[in-house]
Amino acid sequence: MAVIRSIIEMKGADHGQVRATLRHLKDSEDIPYARIGLAEKDGEAVELSIEYPLNVFDRSVSQFVAVLFGEIALMKDFGNLQFIGLELPEEVYGWFGGPAYGVDEILTRFHVDEFPMLVGIIKPSLGPSLDVATIDRKLREVLSGGIHGVKDDEMQGDLPFARLSERINLAEKYGRYIPTLNLDDADSYLGILMNEKIGMALLNASIIGFPMLRTLRMMTRIPLLSHVAMQGTYLDSFCPKVFAQLHRLFGCDAFITPIGDVGYYRIDKGQEQDMVHEFVKELPIRKTLPLLTGGARLRNLREVMTPYQAFDIPYGIVFGTQIFGSDEGPAEMARVVVEKVAEIKAQG
């Protein structure tokens, strides 16, 4: 029988209380499991495995997430809890569909011949100094310097000095400018996502929620880039690998993936690579393009690139301050970054 298997690691839990809670769950049938397993790990950790039959899911995103993550995460007896694995049978990928476009469409739209895809973040990110004329100038300089695309900061809004409508005009003009959409209703999103002149749009999927992400994925005519907005349950309860898995499953075509071991995000190099491989491994859905961000510099560029060049997998690197914060100017720094990437690739 095909099942969905959720794997949960618990640290600092009262083992007796955990077993008592599991006995209660079995007796009360509060959780629609097919099988529950409990195993002790090294140290004080306990690993809980719950298998769910497919017939308890109605194939909606909301109910899927509620069954898998809605109840267990709140049980205080389970201590410091984290979902570390999610095993899905092939049928489940058909329920949700994954990315509408995926890696191949992004490569075409952004004129990427080989990896990594290079993306700049407009800096400064927010404030009256970043008016539309300044954005236009910076886009022109960086895109002409060989960078494949430029994105807004994830916090950008419909502000008086950088109106969303004006930024959408720039996205149409350049094709490779990725505007951020922080909106509150599906109709507002769809009015923009139906515009095929835009190369890609950025949204915060874990803020708007996975059901909204799937709704937009079903209707959009452009790829969806999501930012790593690690707040609330997403930060505390999902390991980075599962976090990546869910974003791909529900429809992200590209994802801003944190670089590990740079003191910027709370993940290490191994977790970074887990996320990247989750986005691009072979599954019955399209691949999500991982875009590494949060610490890419000329001095560590080889370290960032080497694992993915060696595996020959699709990936990108995002630069913010390295390009837009340098005294040399955006056009010159874009050129320097492109040349450094080529040098590293040539040296192998």
Concise summary:
The protein has helices at residues 15-28, 61-69, 90-96, 102-109, 132-144, 164-174, 186-193, 205-208, 210-219, 233-237, 240-250, 269-280, 301-311, 321-324, 330-347, and strands at 3-11, 35-40, 46-53, 80-87, 117-121, 149-151, 177-178, 201-203, 224-226, 254-258, 289-293, 316-319.
List the helices and strands and how they pair.
Blueprint: E1 3-11, H1 15-28, E2 35-40, E3 46-53, H2 61-69, E4 80-87, H3 90-96, H4 102-109, E5 117-121, H5 132-144, E6 149-151, H6 164-174, E7 177-178, H7 186-193, E8 201-203, H8 205-208, H9 210-219, E9 224-226, H10 233-237, H11 240-250, E10 254-258, H12 269-280, E11 289-293, H13 301-311, E12 316-319, H14 321-324, H15 330-347
Parallel strand pairs: 5-6, 5-12, 6-7, 8-9, 9-10, 10-11, 11-12
Antiparallel strand pairs: 1-3, 1-4, 2-3
How would you portray this structure in words?
With 348 residues, the chain is α/β, with parallel strands linked by helices. It folds into two domains: 94 residues, RuBisCO large subunit, N-terminal domain (Alpha-Beta Plaits, 2-Layer Sandwich); 246 residues, TIM Barrel, CATH 3.20.20. Helices cover 42% and strands 18% of the residues. The protein contains 15 helices and twelve strands. The strands form two sheets. The chain has an eight-stranded parallel sheet. The N and C termini lie far apart (47 Å). 40% of the residues are buried.
